[in-house]
Design a protein that fits this description.
The complex is a heterotrimer of chains A (100), B (119) and C (140). Chain B is built from 4 helices and 5 strands; from the N terminus they run E-H-E-H-E-H-E-H-E. Helices cover 34% and strands 23% of the residues of chain B. The longest helix of chain B has 14 residues. In chain B, helix 1 packs parallel to helix 2. Chain C has 140 residues and is an alpha/beta fold. Chain C has a single domain, classed as 3-Layer(aba) Sandwich (Hypothetical Protein Ychn, Chain: A), CATH 3.40.1260. Chain C contains 4 helices and 5 strands. Chain C has a 5-stranded parallel beta sheet. The chains are: A alpha/beta (100), B alpha/beta (119), C alpha/beta (140). Chains in contact: A-B, A-C, B-C. At the B-C interface, helix 4 of B face helix 1 and strand 5 of C.
């Protein structure tokens, strides 16, 4: 299963619920405002730092860039992908589950 | 692989329709099929031909329409959600058609993946 | 306009409807409900799951008179009836489950007695397995 989260962890509980309900080993892709969760050094960073042990975690590069984050600000273990990479993840990981 | 796409938000308030469009475009470029995009909730506003964004902004109504014309993507607007929001045949932009919610279930049944974009 | 015809004859998939939002503040709950009902016409399996504030959608005693909005909570009773019909009628090859996440209930001080329909109360881990095994997830 491919989970996507499009909300900032500062704004809503979508990431928390995703992490609670995502089966170990499933993939998580952070998109839109969800990319904020992938950034190092915030009070929310521990969530994704903890998740990389149980899930393959990805972040959408175009959304990072749009929000003035560089790839070296991304939490270690999180892979940056583009839209083509998003498509590959959807192909590889099965059913899409959008946490809004 | 066949990707069905569900768009649940309009072209401006949320990024959902942009992300869905970029996903659909990338999937088609990789040689996948996107047989149908279903527009539900405020997503029906993506089909509003009277939408007139400023010239320096992207126009998702036209971008979706171009995808339909060039790549044969079936753009379906939910009739019930559209009626609530004043989207009728007269206000429909080129490339879109109005049909029932059953077309979403069919896309889920007939595609390898149903990708959902909303808020 | 490229009207596409899907080959759906004999296709049986499992849809998960993930309800996470409280009713009335936004339209999401209502429009997910409409999709659930349509999927019955195609005899598809369905997990109708309530998590987070979605659990408030099925709370008994909703009265929308004073906000002048349609009280759509009776529709959950129709969903329950569809589920029971499918359970009882051998000719209907459709399994529906109405599920509430225990963690969401506990966090909100609710119990299953607060609901207008009968539900399965399952843990997050149990729900994760069910959702993971489904073919399409529609959330609202």
């Amino acid at each position: 299963m491919l989970h996507t989260v499009n909300k900032s962890p500062f704004e809503r509980n979508s990431l928390d619920t995703c992490l609670r309900l995502a089966k170990k080993g499933s993939a998580i892709l952070l998109i839109e405002d969800g990319v904020i969760a992938a950034v190092k050094g915030t009070v929310q960073s521990a969530k994704i730092e903890g998740a990389v042990g149980n899930h393959a975690v990805y972040v959408l590069g175009p959304d990072l860039k749009a929000r003035a984050f560089s790839e070296d600000q991304v939490i270690s273990g999180v892979k940056v992908v583009d839209y083509a990479g998003f498509v590959d993840l959807a192909e590889e990981h099965g059913t899409h589950n959008a946490w809004l | 692989m066949k990707f069905g796409i569900l768009v649940n938000e309009g072209p401006f308030t949320h990024q959902a329709s942009d992300t869905a469009y970029q996903f659909a475009k990338a999937a088609l470029e990789k040689g996948h099929d996107v047989p149908r995009v279903f527009f539900y909730y405020d997503g029906v506003n993506n089909a509003n031909k009277y939408s007139a964004p400023q010239a320096d902004d992207r126009n998702l109504v036209k971008l979706w329409g171009a995808l339909a014309a060039e790549k044969n993507v079936d753009l379906v607007v939910c009739v019930a959600a559209g009626m609530r929001r004043g989207i009728q045949n007269e206000s429909l932009a080129p490339g879109f058609r109005i049909s029932g919610l059953g077309q979403l279930v069919e896309a889920g049944m007939g595609c390898d993946r149903l990708m959902m974009f909303g808020d | 306009m490229a009207e596409f015809e899907f080959e759906t004859e004999g296709v049986k998939k499992t849809f998960t409807f993930m309800n996470r939002k409280a009713p009335y503040g936004t339209i999401y709950a209502l429009e997910v409900l409409e999709t659930v009902l349509i999927s019955a016409a195609f005899e598809q399996h369905a997990n109708i799951i309530f998590v987070d504030d979605g659990v408030y959608q099925i709370k008994a005693g909703q009265d929308t008179t004073a906000i002048n909005m349609k009280n759509f909570s009776p529709t959950y009773g129709i969903i329950e009836m569809e589920k029971e019909d499918a359970d009882e009628d051998d000719d209907i090859d459709m399994v529906w489950r109405i599920i509430v996440e225990k963690e969401s209930l506990d966090a909100r001080g609710l119990t299953e007695d607060d609901f207008k329909v009968s539900v399965e109360v399952l843990s997050a881990a149990e729900i994760a397995d069910i959702v993971d095994a489904s073919d399409c997830v529609i959330s609202g």
